[in-house]
Design a protein that fits this description.
By secondary structure, the chain is of the alpha+beta class. The chain folds into 2 domains: about 220 residues, FAD/NAD(P)-binding domain; about 100 residues, Polyamine Oxidase, Chain A, domain 2 (Alpha-Beta Complex), CATH 3.90.660. It is about 30% helix and about 30% strand. The chain has 9 helices and 17 strands. The strands form 4 sheets. Strands 1, 2, 7, 8, 9, 10, 16 and 17 form an 8-stranded mixed sheet that branches. β12 and β13 form a beta hairpin. The longest helix is centred in the last third of the chain and has 16 residues. It is globular and about 65 Å long. The chain starts with a strand and ends with a helix. About 45% of the residues are buried.
Length: about 325
């Protein structure tokens, strides 16, 4: 069985930033993710000859710790400013995007780390003072320390599968965390939909929360390719709805706003754990009841990309303190 100093479950931005910090401090870690590529919700999909960001659309920078890394991403050519607000005049605060799509950033980070995608963990066990990760289709591995950055309900399920008994306080902290879902609709229209010049339409209402024109946003597309994000309420209500019903929902909403949408092709992605609805107060959580187990991610103190990144950095710092 392969053994590692530190294993990280989840190669989203939280896990990637934790591994990046550990590498800076001379510590080796390995990340495991069930997806085909790194990034989690920083995801870009190919649809015909188009690229569409269908998860997180942008990120902001407010903390100097995060700003340092974003500057390095800009220098590497994988991140750039999209716009400075989505209202008519903007608010002057930069919104960043990935240069070739949001997954440009996690792909670049993963290229400097030991990231193993296509590894779906089925259980986490603690055996002889080591953490053991069991996979559905790969040999098990062990590690001295374990950082779990997957959505908390998935994390709990993995621990329960391995019969890990957490302390009552740790279980209570984790049980308070909850998430909102989001249905993402990727649309190739027959005729272009009228959009703001920068390509971002932030509505923040129900049923429609956000619309992005990925070509105007700056992705290298030959024409308009749209991403629609439904709000939490609409996503919950229509979680099992067929595409035809979702199309009519969006068309009706656009019609009320004086816009018409004719669709040439469409794909749907359902983000079950899109954004935390209730967060843990601290940027990470050290498990009680078992040693060398830490939880991090966007549900810990700060949602969205910056919060998830800072959670990973803080967790990694605590693990080697």
């Amino acid at each position: 069985m392969d053994h590692f100093e530190i294993a990280i479950v989840g190669a989203g931005i939280s896990g990637l930033m934790a591994a990046t910090y550990l590498a800076e401090k001379g510590k080796n870690s390995v990340l495991f993710d069930k997806g085909r590529g790194p990034g989690g919700r920083m995801s870009t999909r190919r649809f015909s000859e188009f690229r569409l960001d269908h998860g997180a659309q942008f990120f902001t920078v407010r903390d100097p710790r995060f700003e340092k890394y974003v500057q390095s991403w800009e220098k590497a050519g994988v991140a750039k400013i999209w716009c400075k607000g989505f209202s008519g005049t903007g608010d002057g605060h930069p919104r960043f995007r990935g240069t070739e799509g949001m997954n440009s950033i996690p792909k670049w980070l993963a290229g400097q780390l030991d990231v193993r995608t296509g590894h779906k963990v089925k259980s986490v066990r603690f055996v002889n003072q080591s953490w053991h990760l069991d996979f559905e289709e790969s040999p098990s591995v062990s590690a001295d320390q374990l950082l779990m950055t997957s959505p908390v309900p998935q994390t709990i399920a993995l621990l329960e599968a391995g019969r890990i008994e957490l302390s009552t306080s740790t279980k209570n902290y984790l049980s308070l965390i909850s998430y909102d879902p989001c249905i993402a609709m990727m649309v190739l229209p027959k005729d272009p939909l009228s959009m703001p010049e920068h390509g971002g339409w932030q509505i923040n209402e129900e049923p429609l929360q956000f619309v992005a024109d990925n070509q105007l946003k700056g992705l290298p597309n030959p024409g308009q390719a749209l991403t629609f994000h439904l709000g939490p309420q609409a996503s919950t209500e229509h979680w099992e709805s067929e595409p035809e019903k979702l199309i009519e929902l969006v068309r009706g909403e656009l019609r009320e706003r004086g816009k018409e949408l004719d669709i040439k092709d469409i794909q749907i992605h359902r983000w079950r754990y899109s954004q935390p609805a209730r967060l843990h107060d601290e940027s990470f959580l050290v498990a009680e009841g078992v040693p060398n187990l830490v939880f991090a991610g966007d549900a810990f103190a700060g949602p969205k990309i910056e919060g998830a990144a800072l959670s990973g950095l803080s967790a990694a710092q605590a693990m080697i303190a």
